[in-house]
Amino acid sequence: xxxxxxxxxxxxxxxxxxxxxxxxxxxxxxxxxxxxxxxxxxxxxxxxxxxxxxxxxxxxxxxxxxxxxxxxxxxxxxxxxxxxxxxxxxxxxxxxxxxxxxxxxxxxxxxxxxxxxxxxxxxxxxxxxxxxxxxxxxxxxxxxxxxxxxxxxxxxxxxxxxxxxxxxxxxxxxxxxxxxxxxxxxxxxxxxxxxxxxxxxxxxxxxxxxxxxxxxxxxxxxxxxxxxxxxxxxxxxxxxxxxxxxxxxxxxxxxxxxxxxxxxxxxxx
Amino acid sequence: xxxxxxxxxxxxxxxxxxxxxxxxxxxxxxxxxxxxxxxxxxxxxxxxxxxxxxxxxxxxxxxxxxxxxxxxxxxxxxxxxxxxxxxxxxxxxxxxxxxxxxxxxxxxxxxxxxxxxxxxxxxxxxxxxxxxxxxxxxxxxxxxxxxxxxxxxxxxxxxxxxxxxxxxxxxxxxxxxxxxxxxxxxxxxxxxxxxxxxxxxxxxxxxxxxxxxxxxxxxxxxxxxxxxxxxxxxxxxxxxxxxxxxxxxxx
Lengths: 269, 251
Description:
The complex is a heterodimer. Chain A is mainly alpha-helical. Chain A has a two-stranded antiparallel ribbon with strand order 1-2. In chain A, a hairpin with a 2-residue loop joins strand 1 and strand 2. By secondary structure, chain B is an alpha/beta fold. Chain B has a domain of 174 residues: P-loop containing nucleotide triphosphate hydrolases (Rossmann fold, 3-Layer(aba) Sandwich).
């Protein structure tokens, strides 16, 4: 199976995950977006050497993934795909930051601590976004963002992009197969061939865009895509936002691992 | 939905590169009639349909839908009356889910509240696709996309339904379902197709297009019985009207 095909199936799996019916899936997408935004801001607000204090925040993506029936293996694989970016950002820290710091009773270089902090924050933020997408679906997310005030022109572009990504990728796959079927050797596609394939795709995209626009006009489109979804922000949705936000604030004000450590040490001594 | 008639008079159109697509096309379709538009590739069928839906406006001549002449000022009114189903359902289904796609047209017409849900359910039920209501459009099979594409237009309750090659790429079962669906509609129907067997089953009248002109216009059975006309127009007699190749008995 080609990488395009694998990518398509992988992307399509988000739809299947988002189509489940669990308590997390039933939460209003706006509530999930707001809670995730609060989560991202709070996680980003920690100091560059904070590592252990970030641990309690794992509770958010792990709880949502567990209740939302999102496979941890799938989420982990997606995290691994995005990991090189975080590694690239943090890998230089141990080289340039060599100041000695205390960590769990040991002396370590500050660069390693900040690297661990970057990695931890990457893990938390990407996991939270993956859980948000997996439990909501891109189309509902786009519509909810529109409801939250993001310009409709932007959300409509995102939704159309997502909708036609599959069509475009399907066309790219067909062209790639046609190329392979007429290529006697098993060598990889040359840059020149790729460039021509992309050119053809661009031309086809242009033609399709015209036809889609005509189809929209036929159904009364006048520049503003309507949304039929009925939106009700219930008490349960409000409690979801308030509850998690309060938890994030609590973890931010109190270093929970340290408090637990002190308690344990107090009991032992 | 109240069926509307269509009147085309001396219609002419050329694309910007100079290709003449329509030349003095003239015909009239009465409200509730089912008409097939057939012809070879490049005969002008699709260009004609785009004129009926007001996507293209006449360079010469006129198109009237009901009592409304198709022109820039009347486009929104025309599009309320004429529902165009495109050849490729991926062009027609641009919203993320089936529900949103079927609701798109009525919402643009100003329909709101419970009436939207009622229209969506009614249209999807009419095409036998109510079970697909929550599915993402891009995850449907081709046959499913085709019937949902028809539902996206039916939900607007158009007075005339215009379909471009509705049976292309359908498997026999999906094609049969489509034929039954089209036969059950009580609106004016215009079907551009190469599938003459479908035309014979669905449409009582056929217009033959040849190089932008109306080459023939009459009852479907009479048109399809004229082998010479069909051959001159780049077509073949439908299989259902040909004699058995083994015993030569008429089918």
